[in-house]
Structure formats: C-alpha cells, structure tokens
Amino acid sequence: MTREDYDRYAAAFNARDYDAVFDFYADNPQMAFFGIEIRTRQQLRDFYTFLHSYVRETITVEKFAASDELAAVEGVIRIEAFKDLTREELDARGMQQFFPISAGDVQEMRQYIHYHLRDGKIAGVGCAIVP
C-alpha cells in the first residue's frame, strides 16, 4: 500500500463510500477496535451507517509509513455530531466503549492505526487513541 493508495482509501472513508473502502480489504479481514469486530462488507456498512447517521467522521493523515506487511498512520480523527447519540442507543448496539455525544459537539482525537497487509490489501486493523 502506497501513500497514494491510502489517500484514496481515506477519501473514500471521508465520502462515506463504504463499498470503495471495503475494496481495500483482503478476504476475511480482521478489524477490531474499541470492542467492535468487523469481518464482512455488510458489518462494515452496518457499523458505519449507524455511526454516521449521528456524526460526521473524518480522518486527517499527518504521518504515513508502509512496508509490504504493514501500513502505519498517525492522524487526527474529527467527530462532529449533528444528532444526539445517547448512551442507550450505543448500549443497544453493543458499543459500550463509545461515548455519547450531543448535536453540535466536536471531538478531535489523535489516533494511531496499524493496517496489517496481505498481497497489498488490508488484512487486519489495530488502533489506539491518545487522549
């Protein structure tokens, strides 16, 4: 994965083009972050369709490094709520690790993301947020 590849991936994510996002993934990817596991195109679509019905989420890449087996990204994730996302709604979706957010609130978080690659495609994802 090159920086240009990742820029196309981030642009698809920021545009909410979930099919284009998933096209960057290998068969049977292992995505696990904040208690959520995603292994199929439909799970990715369901998760982000729900989340993005409450917030605009964008990633701004600040640093990128890659090898044949790993792409590492440091960036800022911006979450802007346009509708209240309550504790009850999060809990009903099994998203206890996520925090409620009220319409109009904005959160920016530094995030470190590791993409494990297989044949140039994303096979697994791990990430950490720095407060």
Structural features, described:
This protein has a single domain, classed as Nuclear Transport Factor 2, Chain: A (Roll). The radius of gyration is 14 Å and the shape is globular. It is built from four helices and six strands. With 131 residues, the chain is of the alpha+beta class. InterPro entries: NTF2-like_dom_sf, SnoaL-like. Residues 7-123 form the SnoaL-like domain. This is Nuclear transport factor 2 family protein.
Quick take:
The protein has 131 residues and is an alpha+beta fold. The protein has 4 helices and 6 strands.
Quickly name the level 1 CATH class: Alpha Beta
Structural category is alpha+beta
Q: Which second-level CATH architecture applies? A: Roll
Total number of beta strands: 6
Determine the fraction of residues in helical runs and give it as a percent range: 25-40%
Percentage beta strand = over 45%
Biggest sheet architecture: 6 strands, mixed
* Coarse shape: globular
Tally of contiguous helical segments = 4
CATH topology, what is it called?
Nuclear Transport Factor 2, Chain: A
Number of domains: 1
Order of helices and strands: HHEEHEEHEE
Which runs of at least 5 residues are low in confidence (pLDDT < 50)? none
Radius of gyration: 14 Å
Terminal CA distance: 28 Å
What spatial order of strands do you see in the largest sheet?
2-1-6-5-4-3
Q: Mean pLDDT, as a whole number? A: 91
